[in-house]
């Protein structure tokens, strides 16, 4: 298969003023933002690592307006960078310099179109914030189980496009398992209506799957049919002190034996990560002594009102303590205490951002290989990168661990020194994960950040097939150029 089948971008000569005037005819002049004061918040990624240079931020209000604007961009050779809540962690929603581009912000497509409790589905527009979707599901006596730290700002289109994961993947799967249908504006402006609400549909290729996790490189998602689940009426959470990652892996197995599918979340934080969250975010505190090398957070939950979640978790953890798997455990005795426990987990990204220059990785390996992986990368990072503090945190039940390197400010005084160290950290972590049969990106995607590394880690045939798909959907290469694939 050919190495590249995406047409190289012609260097379009765009009359920006004329182009933006036409865009304004489609969506209204006040929805075309060009002044730096209005666009600044959209042009930079959440981590503050990438500065975009879009001609304008466009804010269409419905699918027809998105289609009109995308068709206009295609006609003028202007690149389209879709954007939701701009909470992505790999620079995927930033417009690269060097090519005329617009940021297509979907936040105004924010209607819940329908909720169908009988079919256990909800149809939401791309700009609906995750918290709103969860509230709408709860109001209909159902639950939408996806949950991540950015719940108050990330949006349906971004969640679908990054195939987001979060803390509920162990039980419910990631976004791919929660999407039944999509509506997508294709790169030429056509609207593909794949908004089917079916759990069984084997009539040909499952096209929606191609857009899930495509990071806006194949089209603009405007709405999605999402799968709902029964509401949880009983739940309990606990913090567990562990001596090692192996203990966490063994504990998962023990809890699965006792509690089956009722494990709602199973997350780990290294002692260094707990320390960082506690020092960077006021008011957060671990319920256990700081001496345990790892803090494990576990939640169990079930829809049946008669089940005593607290007693079941306490009994299972009793077995773990007896077996020597756990050093200590603290059950959260009420919802407020459980919330405080989970706040530790959900403030990790924020704490690390505040801590200074942190290098965060989002790798996965098969669960049984996690102890080996963590031991290997920790020893290598501490041995080869001066002034680094290594933290681990993440969705250990899914084999997805974030290896985070915090670089001392006194050692890395310049941006260049930080970037060089970041490259070294990433290389060590990614090489180790691939060697153990893992992935360089478990849930955050490739974006701008990991393009070169994807080229090195994926087999040539995988890359060639991906490029062919990209070329089939977007032969002119207007959709989110430079993301996943090199420009
Ligand atoms: P954006 O950041 O706006 O965009 C992300 C990507 O999707 C970009 O490539 C963009 O071009 C594309 N895109 C956006 N909207 C559309 C659309 N309508 N059509 C086509 N393409 C589109 N992620 C996890 O998976 N698990 C976690 O546990 C997790 N925790 C997080 C915690 C915090 C505090 C933060 C800040 C982020 C976290 N993330 C996590 C990352 C992030 O929240 C997710 O990637 C989320 O899915 C991004 O949604 P968004 O609406 O902000 O998308």
UniProtKB/TrEMBL annotation:
Its cofactor is FAD. The keyword Flavoprotein applies. Keywords: FAD, Flavoprotein. The keyword Flavoprotein applies. GO terms for biological process: respiratory electron transport chain. Residues 50-231 form the FAD-binding PCMH-type domain. GO terms for molecular function: catalytic activity; FAD binding. InterPro entries: FAD-bd_oxidored_4_C (IPR004113), FAD-bd_PCMH (IPR016166), FAD-bd_PCMH-like_sf (IPR036318), FAD-bd_PCMH_sub1 (IPR016167), FAD-bd_PCMH_sub2 (IPR016169), FAD-linked_Oxase-like_C (IPR016164), FAD-oxidored/transferase_4 (IPR051264), Oxid_FAD_bind_N (IPR006094). PROSITE patterns: FAD_PCMH. It holds the Pfam family FAD-oxidase_C. Belongs to the FAD-binding oxidoreductase/transferase type 4 family. PANTHER family: BLL6224 PROTEIN, D-2-HYDROXYGLUTARATE DEHYDROGENASE, MITOCHONDRIAL. This is FAD-binding oxidoreductase. The lineage of its organism: Bacteria, Pseudomonadati, Pseudomonadota, Betaproteobacteria, Burkholderiales.
